[in-house]
Amino acid sequence: MPFTDADVPGLAGKTFFVTGANTGLGFETSKVLARQGGRVLLGCRNRTKADAALESLRAELPDADATIVDIDLGDLVSVRAAAEIVAGEARLDGLINNAGIMFPPLQRTRDGFESQLGVNHLGAFALTAHLLPTLERTAGSRVVAVSSNAHKPGRINFDDLNAERSYNKYGRYCQSKLANLLFTYELDRRLRAKGSATLSVAAHPGAAHTELSRHSNPRVFNLFSRPMARFMNTAAQGAWPLEMAATAPGVQGGQYFGPSGFGQMGGPAEQVDSSARSKDADTARRLWDVSAELTGVEPAL
Description:
- The chain is of the alpha/beta class.
- It has nine helices and eight strands.
- Strands 3-2-1-4-5-6-7-8 form an eight-stranded mixed β-sheet, with helices on both faces.
């Protein structure tokens, strides 16, 4: 059954932590969660932008139960500090790992990782690991990874994972989005093996108009986006798969959600499938082990 924000159930008494919540998909998701009565922790890197987002949210929803949690996914010290704050909540029903970057020039995180791998995957991996005990104390909690159709051409370059020898911003983005799904499915396998009630799921927004494309070549972006605009989602519509993954009744661990329209670019959300490569258990286990080594944090599973 196609899913939109109108299908999000009542969320009174539930708490959600959304990273990258000051704009785009994260902001739209946070707004819907708050509208339905959930307590929303807005995970943001830039405090000025976070304050503006919270003000905007409260202008529309004066009674919203929302607060800011400072977090920089490109800084493992910041990730740990944010997790300690969130762990102080009475419950955590959903961790939505939405924050990400796309197509930047070669940059390094504070910990020395190639930025797309570091922010999109390693930061989310570490945050999830830190918060798993809190999530598992809440029956039916969910970890939601935000991937992309860009995972399909992605490859995990274990021989040059950190782009020490070569860097292609498009290929590295695809690698990070594949990593999101490999982690989702491996986390699901481990949670199931433990008999945990926490679910690991993923979503992608299709082609949505957000600030994520700020590093794209504007001429190329406009060349492709304008003819396809009628098939694309707004940011609010692109958030529907995230909202489905985080709140829809009957969701099972290991499921993946995306738009139902042409090419999974737009339209209401539904369960979708991912590439065979994203389901390779050997690659997922290897990536898990490497991620734990690089971040110094391993989920207790």
